[in-house]
Amino acid sequence: MIYQYSIKINKFLSSNQIEKLMTIVSEKRCLKANRFIHQKDRERCLLAEALVRYALIKDYGMKEEKILFNHSKHGKPFLMESNLHFNISHSGKWIVCAIGDSQLGVDVELIRLLEYEDIYKSFSSTERMHLDTLPPQDKQTSFFKLWTLKESFVKFIGTGLKCPFDSFSIDINSLELLKEKQQDTNLSFFSKKLDAEHWYALCCESDIVSKKIKQIDLDEILSFWQ
Q1: pLDDT tens sequence across 115-168
Q2: Alpha carbon distance 170, 118 (integer Å)
Q3: Which domain holds residue 91?
Q4: 3-state secondary structure of 199
Q5: CATH number at residue 144
């Protein structure tokens, strides 16, 4: 079973809240957060790990001292000495994660104005043909829906840039990995608009997925470690 979690941040955190988060996450995460120039990036970085820890302790009964993170050679995070898998993403106002008993990948993206030409070329010819058929008012949101689906797949397989975006195709309507490429097609995709400005996607091996994305309040995270 795979469960999905989210936090929505509508304003900057206070210095006390940031200090509290730094006592919750690992030292390595604190160091990573402190390398960011912008406060919102530091907040997302800290909250991403705090959200995973909260879910593992509250819903999976893991002991704090047993939560040990590591990364694969391509940078995909994983839990040491555990059969559970997780993945995290953050963009705009949202931090998301999914946790379950099979491999998975998640992505969230803020819908925004972009110079699409170069990024558009990263899509497969099948995907570009589909986007070209859409009316102008639908292209931007469909672009980000497809982008999050493809990001979730790349994060699922965990090979990073070794899997170019134009090397596989996803049907944006059926949410299926197309079989024209030599890829594992025994996958499930979940796609949802979190609000008017953010698309979210999950890619996983399991077809048993909790469709509800559990939204956790920031105060609940902080008070959990009182």
Answers
A1: 777 778 889 999 999 999 998 888 889 999 999 999 999 999 998 767 889 999
A2: 19
A3: 1-102+208-226
A4: strand
A5: 3.90.470.20
